[in-house]
Amino acid sequence: MKNNPKWYYEEKQSGVDYLDPKIAQEYDKEHLKFRNFKEEAEQIVQALEITKHDTVLDIGCGTGGIALNLVKYCNKVICVDISREMLDVLETKAKKQNINNIETQSAGFLTYKHEGHDKVDKIVSKFALHHLPDFWKSVALLKMAEILKTGGKLYLSDLIFTFNVDDHKKSISELINRMNDAAGDSMTGETEIHIRDEFSTYDWIMEGLLEKSGFSIDYKHTEADNFVEYVCSKL
Ligand SMILES: C[S@@+](CC[C@H](N)C(=O)[O-])C[C@H]1O[C@@H](n2cnc3c(N)ncnc32)[C@H](O)[C@@H]1O
After folding, report:
1. What distance in angstroms lies between residue 131's CA and the mean position of ligand 1's atoms?
2. Is residue 1's pLDDT more than 90?
3. Is 181 exposed, middle or buried (0-12, 13-18, 19+ CB in 10 A)?
């Protein structure tokens, strides 16, 4: 960004390259091997108590698996992703499904511009914040807190580690094996890239980042020592 100081982080794709049109086109097929977007969206609607009046920001929305299901329960979803290619897939699906109450912006957590909008009621971010190193996660969370209405809610879920550091080899190899069983070779390769080149962090770090950035954690759910969901309120 033009006006940022020289030390400011330049957001780029780290790890899996979601700017690659082939990866964007195949994303839903690969993820549907181990996910159910409709059920995930319905669970978020419940957890955040989303209503028909709400404007929701989905940041790092990808191909809109969650956003395009959520939008049926709210007024509007603002869909933000750094990859134009992922948003292209989202927009094509929205058109096919006759969904008009979405807006898209190709931007990162740090570069997103919330101009011309009121503060939003809810924010959702799934499997995306790990693309930023920890310090920049806190800057992104601070920005989310600024965009969110007071009392508004954030749903954050990601590959976040709850194992002890001395168990990391065992826990990560179990994760890789589980991904292989659930989704085969391509997702195994992506998980290896994720661990090696992306910035998943520990839950105790993430909780400090959330709390120092203006959120209180209302609910935490952990699965298999490497996946965590948080529901947070803006203080
Ligand atoms: C694993 S996908 C998750 C997509 C979607 N949230 C889901 O649940 O399927 C990660 C997404 O984060 C996006 N991403 C990577 N770095 C980003 C950044 N700095 N800011 C915003 N989005 C980013 C990628 O382009 C990709 O679409």
Report:
1. 8
2. no
3. exposed
**Full set of structural domains in the chain with CATH:** 21-161+198-234 (3.40.50.150)
pLDDT above 90 for 3:
no
Distance 166 CA to ligand 1 centre (A): 29
**What's the CA gap between 232 and 105, in Å, rounded?**
24
Which of the listed residues 23, 34, 35, 81 should we mutate to test ligand 1's pocket, taking the one with most ligand atoms within 8 A of CB? 81
Question: What residue has token string 């990560």?
Answer: 172
Cα distance between residue 104 and residue 81, in whole Å: 8
Model pTM? 0.97
Ligand 1: atom nearest CA of 31 is 9
**Residue bearing tokens 């069983």:** 181
154 strand-pairing partners = 123, 232
> What pLDDT was estimated at residue 214?
95
Q: What is the pLDDT of residues 100-129, one digit of tens each?
A: 999 999 999 999 999 999 999 999 999 999
Tokens 């969206």 sit on residue: 41
- 111 φ/ψ angles, rounded to the nearest 5 degrees: -100, -10
- Residue pointed to by tokens 């826990």: 171
Which has the closest alpha carbon to 156: 74, 80, 228, 61?
Answer: 228
Neighbours of 186 (CB within 10 A): 14
So what's the pLDDT on residue 12?
86
Sheet-wide strand order for 76-81:
102-106, 76-81, 55-59, 120-126, 148-159, 227-234, 215-223
